[in-house]
Design brief:
Blueprint: E1 4-10, E2 16-22, E3 29-33, E4 54-55, E5 58-59, H1 60-70, E6 75-80, H2 84-94, E7 98-103, H3 110-116, E8 126-129, E9 133-136, H4 139-143, E10 148-154, E11 162-167, E12 170-176, E13 185-193, H5 196-208, H6 219-228, E14 233-237, E15 240-243, H7 247-260, E16 271-272, E17 276-278, E18 283-285, E19 288-289, E20 293-295, E21 300-302, E22 305-307, E23 310-311, E24 316-318, E25 321-323, E26 326-327, E27 332-334, E28 337-338, E29 341-342, E30 347-349
Parallel strand pairs: 3-6, 3-8, 6-7, 10-14, 16-19, 17-20, 18-21, 19-22, 20-23, 21-24, 22-25, 23-26, 24-27, 25-28, 26-29, 27-30
Antiparallel strand pairs: 1-2, 4-5, 8-13, 9-15, 10-13, 11-12
Helix pairs in contact: 3-5, 3-6, 5-6
């Protein structure tokens, strides 16, 4: 919000007066933790961090950055760890908003990651958004609310998630991965915090007293401490929640994003079945592409049929029939009709 405030001024005659000048607008900051190894997406994550995997024409974190910028955010803190230099390189080359990078050398939990970011956080509201998840949500509408709020989705088995118990529209209890959940409202990784100073106080106390759940400092425990200190936190429902943590969910996210905004060229001799993304910097010849297929920059696809798949940067596919496949950067596939999950710089030939 822009606020006017008085400033003392002395003119050339030595007369003291007050003038009214505008105070600069506060930054709207998003905190994006991306320090994870991404073990469920190996072999791809042996060479690149999970958030740089390509879906629908750009890395996962690119979709997140575009979303927060469209929502009015002009500052971000990105918590990096595994292969963090590659994340820094991508962000600095492609985005001009103010970004602070914080390194989480030991992966001690999401609460720990946020606490490491404390020097970048003021008393102004913040958005915490996990770096391996793509959301369909109106961030501007969410931030207009009077209270802190956490994104949730009803799921059939919430034991893999943090869950929220509510009463009269407000959260009463947050539990990390309960064995016997009493609520099916899964916390999906989007948190709007109106009073981050209180959250940091709670996280500081947790770390000082070594309060851990499942060996980590959990953000849910810090938020629960806020609630116990009187902070009122609501939930908001997110229907469009797309996890990128496993090969099958990565392909599902690719499919969804392409359905929202697919782009492609149509080279001669190529049949395109939308939705697809075909980079103008790729080479595609004598092939059928789509539906639900991404072909990244530098990739080459020749004499092939590719559907429901991701062909990453500088990969080569020749004389192949591929479905529900992920081909890593600089990998080569020649011949065959298979479902493939092949990592970077690999070669696979069928005879």
């Amino acid at each position: 919000m822009e606020i006017l405030f008085p400033k003392l001024s002395v003119d050339y005659r030595g007369i003291v007066r007050y003038i009214i000048v505008p105070k600069l607008k506060n930054h709207m900051r998003a905190i994006i933790p991306v320090a994870g190894i991404g073990s469920r997406l190996r072999p791809h994550t042996y060479t690149i961090p999970k958030v740089l995997l390509n879906v629908a024409g750009k890395p996962i974190i690119g979709h997140i950055m575009d979303k927060i910028i469209a929502g009015g955010f002009d500052a971000a803190t990105i918590v990096v760890g595994y292969l963090g230099d590659k994340v820094k390189e991508y962000i600095t080359e492609n985005y001009s908003i103010s970004v602070d990078f914080v390194e989480q050398e030991e992966r001690l939990g999401l609460g720990h990651a946020i606490y490491l970011s404390r020097h970048t956080i003021s008393k102004d509201p913040i958005l915490i958004i996990l770096g391996d998840t793509v959301f369909d949500v109106n961030l501007s509408a969410m931030m207009k609310g009077e209270y802190s709020s956490i994104g949730v989705k009803e799921v059939p088995d919430p034991r893999r998630f943090g869950v929220a118990e509510t009463k009269n529209g407000f959260i009463t209890t947050l539990i990390e991965k309960p064995e016997n959940p009493t609520s099916n409202l899964a916390i999906v990784g989007l948190y709007f915090i109106k009073h981050p100073d209180i959250l940091l106080e709670c996280l500081k106390e947790m770390i000082k007293n070594d309060v851990r759940t499942k060996s980590e400092f959990q953000l849910t425990d810090g938020l629960q401490m806020m609630i116990e200190r009187g902070e009122r936190i609501k939930t908001f429902t997110i229907d469009g929640w797309f996890d990128c943590g496993k090969p099958e969910t990565l392909l599902e996210t690719n499919k969804h994003l392409l359905s929202q905004n697919s782009t492609h060229t149509s080279p001669d001799g190529v049949v395109v079945i939308p939705p697809v993304f075909i980079s103008p910097k790729s080479t595609v010849k004598n092939s059928v592409i789509g539906p639900n297929t991404t072909i990244a920059a530098g990739a080459t696809v020749e004499n092939s049929i590719v559907r429901n798949s991701i062909i990453s940067e500088a990969a080569t596919v020749q004389s192949a029939l591929l479905e529900e496949s992920i081909i890593g950067s600089n990998a080569t596939v020649k011949g065959g009709y298979k479902r493939i999950n092949i990592g970077d710089s690999s070669e696979l030939e069928f005879y």
